[in-house]
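PT: before anyone asks, these are the final sequences, not the draft ones from last week. 492 residues across everything. Please model them as a single complex and drop the result in this thread when it's through.
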Amino acid sequence: MAEIKANKILLVEDEFNIAKLFVYNLTKAGYECEVASNGREGYEKTISYRPDLIISDVMMPEVDGYEFRKMLLQNDELKKIPFVFLTAKGEEDDILQGYDLEIEDYILKTSSPKIVLAKVSAILKTLEKERSKVVDEVSKAADSMGVKVVPEEFPVFEGFEIKHWHQPHKNVPGGDFIDYIKIDNDNIVVVLGDTMGKRWGAWYFAVAYAGYVRSATRFVLEATKDYKPSIILQKVNESVFKDERISDVFITLSIVIINKTDKTARYSGAGDLPLFLKTEKEVTPFLSNGLLLGFSESGEYQDHELKLESGNEIFLVTDGITEARNSNGEMFREEGFIDFLKSVPSNIDTLEALKLKMEEFTAGNYDDDVSVINIKVL
Amino acid sequence: MEIIEEVIDDIVVEIINLDRATLREAEDLKDKTTSKLNAGFNKFIIDLSNVEFIDSTFLGVIVGTLKKAVKNGGDLKLIGFQPNVRAMFELTRLFRVFETYPELQEAIRSFYKK
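LR: through. Structure below.
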């Protein structure tokens, strides 16, 4: 820990009591700390003090946090210093505007000292390539914030077995997310998304997108009883497309609505890998037509309707599977995945077999998040 | 250099000299294209002839640049696809939104046709 405690932090905050509290906690944890009371002073101190990390308030007199950040971005040297926004409220507007300015993270002023220190430590350790400790502390912080991108439990849905396998890239929270939304007794929505990028930003956006999808789903479901995944996708796409602050973020999304009474699956996708249907005889990929979310206002989303029978299995996957590589650098590919599904007998748990296969293929070295959802008709 | 930038008239050409274009190099491309967009350029050509694999983060930067270029009245065109990269663009349905050309001169000419 000794080398971490020598790190220098510049805190830019105009509220004296908050600055005092942060300085107290940071110095107690062993960090060296300087304070500036607005963006202009912050900029001057950044030049003279050369901190390892900058934590800055947003609302400040003279030069606010956004302006301060923009000033730093103009300077090739200063813009490399990790930058964290301190926000008064957890509002998406603040947070998303912050990410647009290439910040590392944001901290709520109301966060407990434990979370603040975990985040600060995580960012600095990342720089020092001490990944293992970072993962542990950020995971703890994420847990205490109650933020999840993948449900801990599988949904219970009569007549079906729904489960998933999610392996974050190098155990760091990444851009994949999974969600299950039970609409009523008969219908459940299954969501798999992949946010482009693999670092903390992607993890944050995965959280934000999971929220977007949930809201859009509810909106669509309140307006109609004709449950169509393409309408949910279009709604999410419109919100994302119009939102300038996340214009750099692109996402693939697969949505499946399962109806247990008539045993159907309605599927629509945006830039995603195909849905794979495994029956006793064959494995069929269903490729959706839709564009990546947020790219064009009309995403041209279409629905596939699949009639299911007992024993059928549906697989949704992200590119962590198809682009996984073996020690020779060869990729698993979509064809490899289909061949694998074909090779698994119906009395074997396909998802468990896939985990073993991927472990063997990659020797545990994954290049990306790996996410698979498996829906089996009982 | 992994990414070589040239300016031909008012067109920015980014030559990606990488077998695998991934997260690690995506930042470099983003810095280059952002700086050119900020300087007022809106016409881009990305040469992928040497690229055997492109990951979603790198692809995200290309897509983001296209979106901004179009918004500023320009375009981004791609040249030189190897089979794997072509497959990636087909899979994500991005072939529908990018104009692609076999070689540089043709891509340059396409900017002045309209």
